[in-house]
């Protein structure tokens, strides 16, 4: 347990309000869970050489960025990310905590469907093992550590944390 606690503190944490949906994973689903980015499309063959004309290469990159943006918007709507309730969370690259109406047991696996802006929005399906669920005034404070997460997805979370910390610092300077 102490090792787990130390690992979770390897990352900076930040408070934020994000769109979040939580679902308890059944024991049958546990073997299949793996963090992923919604709308991520992998192409079997992508050209490795850029066109020799730099102007054409710039236009292709611009069109590619616009297509990625449209795929993200379509994916957000198709997978219900636009209807997620805003929830206060404390998040880091190792895990997160949030207030829930439901109580969970230590060791439960939760699907955490969320949108993080860092600075452009990314929709994620993350999975977390419940390490703590305690009764507070109006619900339960649930703490999870992320499981089955690749480092590139963790990097999205870390970028979000630093982006949010910069926002907080800017707001403090303006006061």
UniProtKB/TrEMBL annotation:
InterPro entries: PilZ_domain. It holds the Pfam family PilZ. Residues 87-162 form the PilZ domain. GO terms for molecular function: cyclic-di-GMP binding. It comes from Thermodesulfovibrio autotrophicus. It comes from the Bacteria. This is PilZ domain-containing protein.
